[in-house]
Amino acid sequence: MFKKAGLLILMVALLTACQPAKPGTEGNNNVPTGMQITSPAFKNEENIPVKYTCEGEGVSPLLQISGVPEDTGTLLLFFDDAGAIPGEQTHWLMWNIPKDVTEIEAGKVSGDAVVGKNDFKEMGYHAPCREGKRKYEFTLYALKIRFAVPKEAMKLDIGSDYQPFILAEAKLTGYFEGKAKPKEEVVPKEEEKK
């Protein structure tokens, strides 16, 4: 785990102080609601197609971005299992996504974006795979700043340091019901000796 003091260096602070809430904003963060993240693979609150899970190809779906504020520095993306506990939920994270990116292609990194380490100790997208029906969220943040963060960083390392610099936030929610894994057959000791 990295020391937070040396982890989150704000390389480019486009706005160094939090601005007061603007008209047309809502929520605790008072962030604008005009930005959107969508996918042609599935609609918000629908099931994630098997192709994008461990039961299929396991690749990330195409994501489309719109309504990014003009004064955005970079974009930050998390893909989380919303029902898991912190430290076991992040399947994908990417920061320093250029603000003019309108699509994040399946299995690709956009521009100068950096992909961090997910909670499965992998660098990249970890497909939904848990047994039972789970809720998953792609969360996109428009930030005032650009990060200088080691690519080995995880979401828990980043913490909440970016939150004062949020200009806008958008979510895409999907569901996936993983199949129950077959139980291993236990061989009785008497048969084992034969």
How is this structure best described in words?
By secondary structure, this protein is mainly β. The protein is built from 3 helices and 13 strands, in the order αββββββββββββαβα. It has a 6-stranded mixed sheet, with no helix packed on it. It has a 3-stranded antiparallel sheet with strand order 4-6-9, with no helix packed on it. The model is unreliable at 1-29 and 182-189 (pLDDT under 50).
CATH topology: Phosphatidylethanolamine-binding Protein
Can you tell me the number of structural domains?
A: 1
Q: Measured on Cα atoms, how large is the radius of gyration? A: 19 Å
Strand content: 35-45%
Query: How widely separated are the two ends?
Result: 50 Å
State the name of the first-level CATH class.
Answer: Alpha Beta
Going by CATH, the architecture would be Alpha-Beta Complex
What is the H level of CATH, i.e. the homologous superfamily? Answer: PEBP-like
Q: List segments where confidence is low: pLDDT < 50 over at least 5 consecutive residues.
A: 1-29, 182-189
* Shape, per Cα inertia axes: globular
Mean pLDDT: 80
Sheet of most strands: 6 strands, mixed
What is the number of E strands? 13
DSSP helix count? 3
Structural class: mainly beta
Helix amount, in percent? Answer: under 10%
Multimerization state: single chain
What would you say about this model in short?
With 194 residues, the protein is mostly beta strands.
Keywords:
194 residues, mainly beta, Phosphatidylethanolamine-binding Protein, six-stranded mixed sheet, 13 strands, 35% strand
